[in-house]
Amino acid sequence: MLRNYFLLAALLTSLSIQVKAQKVDYVLVVHGGAGNMKDLEKDSIHAAAYYAALDSALEIGNEILAKGGDGELAVLSVVSYFEQNPLFNAGIGATCTADGQFELDASIMRGKDLMAGAVAGVKLTKHPIKAAHAVMTQTQHVMLSGAGADRFALEHGLEMVDDNMYFATPKTMQWIDKLKQESKKNGTVGCVVLDSKGNLTAGTSTGGMFKKQWGRIGDSPLIGAGTYADNASSAVSCTGHGEYFIRHIVAYNLCSRVKLLKESIQEAADHIIFEELNEKEGNGGLIAVDRNGNIAMSFNSNGMFRGFIKKKTGNSNIIKKIGIGKVLK
Ligand code: ASP
User: Fold this and answer.
1) How far is the CA of 220 from the centre of ligand 1 (A)?
2) How far is residue 233's CA from residue 265's CA, in Å, rounded to a whole number?
3) Tally of structural domains, the chain
C-alpha cells in the first residue's frame, strides 16, 4: 500500500515536471557584455547598431530552434556570429592584453550530460567557441590553453587566422597604440538555450579584460564560473569582472541555488549579482534560463547588452525583447 503511494507520488511529480517543461517550446537568451553604457544613451546611431546585432543573434538562434534544432547548435551559431561582429569583445573586436595582443577565451556546456569544453588564451583560432565545442566533443578533456589549444584547433580543421592582429579593429588598434587610458569597451558574449527537447546549453566567448596581464585567464572559459548548464537546474552565461565571478563560482552557484534551495532563477540571479557581487565588488551580470523556460538577466552595472526569444507551446507567436540599459524593448 505504502509502496503504491510512493510510486503514485513519484509519477505525479514527474508528470508535473513534464507539464511545466512543456509550457514553452524553446527559449534563447543572449548577452553582449555588461558595463557602463552611459555614452551609448547619448549616441542613438551607435546604440541602434547594437540593437540590430542583438536582433540578428536572436534570429540566428530562432531559425535553428524553430525547426526543432538542438540548443547546442543554436549556442554555437549565435556565439560564432558575435565573434565575427566587431562590436563585441569576442573574436574580432576583442580587447587586448597589456602587451597589445589578443588572447581569447571561450567555453560551452550542455546540461543533458554535463559535458563541457573550453579554450583559454588562444591567439590564432578564428572562432574560439568552435574550438571549445571541439574540445567537448572530440577529446577526453574539458579545457585546453594557449599554443596547445591553437594547435588543437588547427589539427581539427577549424578556421585559423595567420596573424593575431586579425582580431584588431581600428578602435582596438588605437588602444594598442596608446595603451594608456582605461577602455570602456564591454562586450563579452554569451548565449543560453532551452531547446524543444528540454535540453539546456550555455556558451560564452571573450577577449577578456582590457590591459589584462598576458596569460591571465578570466571566468569565461571556466566551467562553473562563467558558464554552466545542468538539465536538472539551469543554463548560465556570465559577463563582468572575471576575478569576482571566479571567486563566487557564479554560474554553478546559480544552478545550485535553483536546484538545492529551490529559489526561482530570478531570486538566485539577483542574490548573486546584487548581494554577493555588489557594485563595489564585482561589476557585471548574467543571463540564465531554467528547465521550465523561466529566464533571468540580472546586472549590477548600468547596462548589459541582452535579449531573448521565447516560443510558448500552442502559440505561434515568438516573444522577442532586447535591451541595453534598464528597459527592455
Ligand atoms: N568576464 C570577462 C573576463 O573577466 C570579461 C567580461 O565579461 O567583460 O575575462
Assistant:
1) 6
2) 9
3) 1
- The best mutation among 37, 95, 219, 244 to test binding of ligand 1, ranked by most ligand atoms within 8 Å of the C-beta, falls on 219
Tens-place pLDDT, residues 112-129: 999 999 999 999 999 999
Q: Where on the phi/psi map is residue 323: left (φ > 0), alpha (ψ -120 to 50), or beta? A: beta
Evaluate whether 209 touches 220 at the Cβ level (below 8 Å).
Answer: no
Q: Could you tell me the CATH number of the domain that includes residue 231?
A: 3.60.20.30
Mutate to test the pocket of ligand 1, among 209, 246, 277 (most ligand atoms within 8 A of CB): 209
Q: How far apart are the C-alpha atoms of 270 and 276, rounded to whole Å?
A: 9
Ligand 1: residue whose CA is nearest its atom 4: 242
Reading across the β-sheet that carries 227-229, which strands appear in turn? 227-229, 234-240, 284-290, 295-299
Whole-model pTM: value is 0.90
Q: How far is the CA of 232 from the centre of ligand 1 (A)?
A: 27
Q: So which residues are the catalytic ones? A: 188
Q: Quick: pLDDT tens for 268-296.
A: 999 999 999 986 778 999 999 999 999 99
**Host domain of residue 257:** 24-323
Residue 299 lies in a domain: yes
Residue 328 located in a structural domain: no
What nine digits make up the cell of 76? 554555437
Give the atom of ligand 1 at the shortest distance from the alpha carbon of 34. 8
Q: Is residue 276 part of a domain?
A: yes
Within-domain flag for 19? no
